[in-house]
Each structure stands twice: as structure tokens, then as C-alpha cells.
Amino acid sequence: MINGKRIAVVMPAYNAELTLEKTVRELSDVVDIKILVDDSSKDRTAALSRRLGVLTFVHDANYGYGRNQQTCYREALAAGADIVVMVHPDYQYTPSLVPAMAGMVASGVYDMVLGSRILGTGALKGGMPLYKYISNRLLTAFQNLFLGVKLSEYHTGFRAFSRQLLETLPLLENSDDFVFDNQMIAQAVMFGFNIGEISCPTKYFKEASSINFRRSVKYGFGVLGTTASFVAHKWGIRRAPRFGASGRKVTQKYYSQAVQGS
């Protein structure tokens, strides 16, 4: 708990058995709620998560990274979280920064905080492939231009959010795939939320999840599509439910038997 606010860490997981325990062991005592959503893994991720004392939910099928996050946020809000930090359980991002990121939100200054791999010199030193680094920089410059903000990167998977932001953004209008992350930042900008960043080292290794070149290209086109949709909505050319106040919120029911909890 920070400044009287309950902190939840959510972990969207798929085949994370080899790195999950290391991630959970490094979570700070300020974390009040630990939640893992297993997107129908083929390994023993869910069993290990329960053994580690993490509140665990299991999808009945592999729905995708975006849908996994939707479940993460819904369950964190239902558990009473005031601040939610998403940590990938593949140990690519350091869990020790959770208190710092949550504190930035708890201060009331920021509604969303991104753990940036680009601030400082951590990305390439941590093993980020050169083609990913270059595409990251190009896509970020493109989005800064059209979204009217100045972020060091839009593509990190280490993020902290206020409860108000998660209850406001129409997250159920977003993709079930990896571009969900990018759509969420664009939504936060559209709805006027304040976004902060913190330098975050990253590690690329065999057990860490990372999308391949083909899916990276698909993600890149998704980012371009998100940006075009943002501009079209803002200029009144074409309205998109993703950027409208009436879009479906994560607090609404969107599954029945899709998730089993423990």
C-alpha cells in the first residue's frame, strides 16, 4: 500500500513456468494483491502460480495477450485495487521497479506510468534485437507526431495505471493481440490522462517471451492503424468506439465460463 492506496500486480501469462517464480519472489511488500491470468498455457504455469500464493485465473482457451489483459484488469478492480501494475512474468522487466511506478501514480501526478527501455541505455545492452530497436524508434517518432505527446516509447509491456483510468477507458474495444498495448496508450491520450515514464532495464534471453519477426511486422501495421484511427476520430472524420466515451468498459461482463479462478 502506498499513500493509502491498494497496489495490485497483474501478470498476463502464457507458458511462463520457467520464469514465474523468480518474478514473484522479487515483488515488493508494498504489493497488496498478486493476480495471474493464464491464457491456457501448455505448461504448469497455473499450478506454480497457485503454489506461490498468487490469485490465479485460467482462460478456457488461448484468447490472446489483449484479452488476457482485459481479464487482469477486471479482476484487479474487482479485488479492490486502487493502482494496478502490469508485470510480464517472463522476467524481461525488473519487478523491483513496481514500488517506484506505483508511487508515481499514487502521487496523483500521473494516471499511467510506462517503464521505458529507451530512456537511458538499457535496450540494446539488454539484448533487444537491432531491428526491433530501430522499428521502436521509428514508430515512436511517428506516434509522437500524430498523437501530440512526447514519449520515449509506446511499446513497453511494463505499466502502471490508476483505477480511474482502467474504469474509464473502453478496453473491451481493443484487440485481443499484442497491439492492445498500443491502443491503450492512444486511448489514454484521447481521454486526457497524464502519462509518465521511468527508465527500466530489460533482459532478452531464451526463456523470455518475445514476438517473432512476422508478428512484429503485424504489430507495426497495427500501430499505424491505431494512429490513423486516433487521428480520424479526433478530427471527426470517422468515429471509433475505441476512442468514444460510450465504448465498452472492462468492468462490464465479457465472459461467462471463460475464466476459472482459485
Helix proportion range: 25-40%
Determine the N-to-C terminus distance: 23 Å
Strand content: 5-15%
Which structural class matches the secondary elements? alpha/beta
Q: Can you list the strand order of the major beta sheet? A: 7-5-6-4-1-2-3-8
What is the count of DSSP helices, taking H or I runs of 4+ residues? 9
Question: Architecture, CATH level 2?
Answer: Alpha-Beta Complex
What is the highest CATH level, the class?
Alpha Beta
Q: How would a textbook summarize the main sheet?
A: 8 strands, mixed
Overall geometry: globular
Give a quick set of tags describing it:
8 strands, Spore Coat Polysaccharide Biosynthesis Protein SpsA, Chain A, 38% helix, single chain, alpha/beta, 8-stranded mixed sheet, 9 helices, 262 residues
